[in-house]
Amino acid sequence: MASRRGRKSRTLNTRKGDKEVYEFEDEQNQKLGSSITDLPRPICVDILLRLTVKRILICKCVCKPWHNLISDPEFAKLHFAQGEAYPLVKSLAPTCVSRTLYLVEPPETNTGFDLGYCDCYGYLKWDCDRHLNMKLDTKLKIPLHNAELVINSEGTDANMNHLRCKSGVKRKRCIKLIPKDHKLNVVNSCNGLLCLSEPLQNDPVVVCNPITGEFINLPVPTQTAKHPSAKKFSDCGLGFSPKTNQYKVIRMFDQQECQLTCEPISGRGIYSSRVAEIHTLGKGSWKRIGSAPHSTYSYKLRAATYLNGTLHWFDINNTDYIISFDFDNDEFKPFPPPPHERSNVCYSEKPNMSIGALRGQLCVCDSSYFEYIELWVMEKYGVQGSWTKQFSISTMTDHSRWLRGLYEPMSYLRNGAILFFHRMSNAVYYYDPKKWKLIFLKLSGIKSRFEAIAHIPSFISLKDIVMGDNLAVLNIKSRCGEFKLLGETKALFLKEENADTDSDFNISSAGD
Description:
Elements: H1 2-32, H2 41-49, H3 53-60, H4 64-71, H5 73-81, E1 86-91, E2 100-103, E3 124-126, E4 132-135, E5 138-141, H6 147-152, E6 160-161, E7 174-175, H7 179-182, E8 185-190, E9 193-197, E10 204-209, E11 214-217, H8 222-226, E12 235-241, E13 246-262, E14 269-280, E15 287-291, E16 301-307, E17 310-315, E18 318-326, E19 331-335, E20 353-358, E21 361-366, E22 372-378, E23 387-394, E24 407-412, E25 418-422, E26 427-432, E27 437-444, E28 450-455, H9 462-465, E29 474-475, H10 476-480, E30 484-485, E31 493-496
Parallel strand pairs: 7-30
Antiparallel strand pairs: 1-2, 1-28, 2-5, 3-4, 4-31, 6-7, 8-9, 9-10, 10-11, 11-29, 12-13, 13-14, 14-15, 16-17, 17-18, 18-19, 20-21, 21-22, 22-23, 24-25, 25-26, 26-27, 27-31
Protein name: F-box/kelch-repeat protein
Organism: Camellia lanceoleosa
């Protein structure tokens, strides 16, 4: 009985001690004043909106009030409204698991990658030679092509490697996947969402938001299910209809039979097997909408760019017009290209044209002229006469060599500089109009090639913008985000290097 009374007494003393500790902490907090979480909501919102995506994601984990604020749909809309496009990088190495994306965004205290800037946190610094060395610290994930294989592998040793530390304790399990089970292509970006396709035939399979970690599996196309041998390589893309407030995915492919049809761009009667289907997110199936634009090599539409309710492509073998698809009316239309002169350009160089969007304006980057790049901007959307040549950029290096090939416009920074992605040199180029020079930024940490796409990050939840019966919005982290996969790239760095010593740029990349 005595021991019981003793235990009871100690419990009472503990509770009394806790109460005294709480009272002491409250007293200290009152002396210290208000904390940052006590700031008025508008001030907190204003502070958070000035941060990079990486910092906002960290702040979301700091406390419950900030988590709720950042998760609020109104905050997500405000953030996206002032959002800017930055390159989103993904490895193409066959030995790397490609579910990780790297967002190239300058620190919030800097408007560009200016010489002499130094970040005390180590995200961006200049070495003794004053060269850029930027760690790509904003890492995002996309779904795996065969996530079910990873989930079903839990608890089995078929394709799992259990790593042990020196003490013999099991560490985080590591799963080995072959490329067909994890690789997905990034097709295009639209309002913070990504369209992902399977790599063999480029069929769209997933729409995801890499910031929130949410994704939607698209229904299997009818043509693929009934006639798998009839379908060839697809062209596809994600877009948004402002009229109906719906997101849609377009896919174009060759069916088995060729038939006389009206070509949707030229209006000519031709024999073609090219057709198009549309899927509205939240619906249960695909809908055939008629013939698709014909091309000599119809599977080579390049760089789907969404802007103003319309998706835009360049036919790799015909740059006389831009192919566009209007998501409001579900129809293809020809779109006027810039008035460039072609008399002195050989045929092999014609494909070196790309299309993009900079600060809400359609732009075309023409690098077909060997020694310079022309950047055209459409100042009034849809008005052919509003095309303006904004820059003519020399591609000559310090050693009198030319960086030829396809340049894709990625981002227009606040300091007036522009980021380009150059496929041939597998690098990002920084152009500052004040210095009239292209700066070569090589990505280190990847032994093979990579791809880059312009993307505006969004915290808007898929559940808030996509409505439909029995719509399953899945989460990347909750499904297989905790698993470690063999071959995942750990860290990447963007470094300024000498382009002349990297590779031979005098070889044309027209066929890239």
